[in-house]
Alpha-amylase
Amino acid sequence: MSTSIPQQQEEGDELEKTWWKEAVVYQIYPRSFFDTNGDGLGDLNGIRAKLDYLQELGVDMIWLCPVYKSPNVDNGYDVSDYQAIMDEMGTMDDFDRLLEDIHSRGMKIMMDLVLNHTSDQHPWFLESKSSKDSPKRDWYVWRDHPTNWESIFGGPAWTYDPKTRQYYFHLFSKSQVDLNWENPELRRAIYDMILWWLDKGIDGFRVDAINHLKKEYTDMPNPEGLNYVPAWEKMTNVQGIQELLAELRRETFDRYDVVTVGEANSVRAHEISEWISEEEGKFNMIFHLEAHEEAWDEESAGVDVDDLRIVLDRWQRSAQGIAWNSLYLENHDRPRTVSTWGNDREHWRESATALGCMYFFMQGTPFIYQGQEIGMTNAPFDDINMYRDIETKNMYRYNRQKGVPHKDLMKTIKKISRDHARTPMQWNFGANAGFTGGTPWIPLNPNFNWLNVKAQQQDPQSVLSFYKKMLKLRKDHEALVYGSTHLTYLECPYVYAYTREYGEARYLIISHLDDDTCSWWNPVDGELLLSNYDSYVDGKLQPYEARVYLLN
Ligand code: NOJ
């Protein structure tokens, strides 16, 4: 192999081995996974019915997006009872059976935990809202005079309550009311709820929007005279948040052998230590959004490989020896990467697999979002009425009010709406792709007539087969879990390449993220372990070609 590949495993680089570092996590958006009762919405029994599929894929842990009782304004991210299951998904008995089935297969489960806000239908809020003297008034944030902030989902971040003549605060929609984390009684109630789930035997939490727990409620400067001003810095990673998070961890997660992943947008790699280091971190991992924010936007034709390298390498190096990364390409809040970062037309299969190979073998715990393993694509929905997501709908509404043309908005929505990740899982060629016998809550992506699990199960070259091979490879080679990661360059501008090094073992991972062929003259001295092409030529990378080598 080219001598330019550095050998730099350093002493003391090794972190303690733990089950969750070796695990691969599969994220389920239950509403869109599999429906067993014909109401058009996925349910807990649907997940139970597909455990064989997940086990065959090789996943170790499942992350369930919220299944708590909820009016579903934001599909479960508006919880009205943390200790009950939403009617559409089943019952607590169904949940207990699911937990048992998962554990009996040696798999684990991670729940979503929404702590920044509750639904406006939560009894705590109904009580808080009932009067200014309510004992729970201070569990939420009430003010006589609102700040001038815009909510993350558009429109004002405060809503007036005519009965008690005050405004309440909501970072997201007005039905998702922010909890007041400054109130110790509220915090205690939250900790008790978390302990209740932990006692039930779940294995971890993905903690929603956790970097927003603290706010600095003062007006934003408004030189442009906007109705509402984005106030990101006043509601994100505000000074003092670490103390709150430290208490949360101490009072709950620390007492169990569980894994935690905080969703923490805008946290940067230089902040790793306080967030996730093994010494002083508050979570085991976080989901940062930096790669998605820096390497692609709605104007981009494909992913910017330079930016991607810069961001991901920074996270790999910053975590090395002190913390552990989460690795992900997709989730329920992002469009499908094969459509945005890759090419979902003539190189659909190759780009879905090359993107998979790019992120999957870095140091960290890989997460796979449902449908990613079969290369599901953005939906071609032209009509705003085909979309269901509150963020998409609000964005459309507020921008239309500001005079933005319908055509321009639809162009953006077709590219970035969260609903692209939320169309039903495509299981087979049958009606509704086998997702439901009823009317699906959101239209299917019509490409299920060729893109589905069934079509890929028997095809050794399919995206699904490639994912299975990736999972197996990671399982069979400890170095691909614990080895250090080193970025390397192959003279092709659109190649993301890196080595993993662990003791004497060295691996090379190459993902060519472009439509063209690229020449690259250094033959590799090693054994080819994985490739997404049937045949390959040394010295050349075909469009979206991906390879994994064990180097000699
Ligand atoms: C992040 C979740 O991933 C997203 O789906 C949700 O809308 C917001 N947090 C609010 O809970």
Summary: The first strand starts at residue 25 and ends at 28. The CA atoms of residues 21 and 365 lie 5 Å apart. Residues 74, 77, 114, 172, 208-209, 263, 332-333 surround 1-deoxynojirimycin (CB under 6 Å).
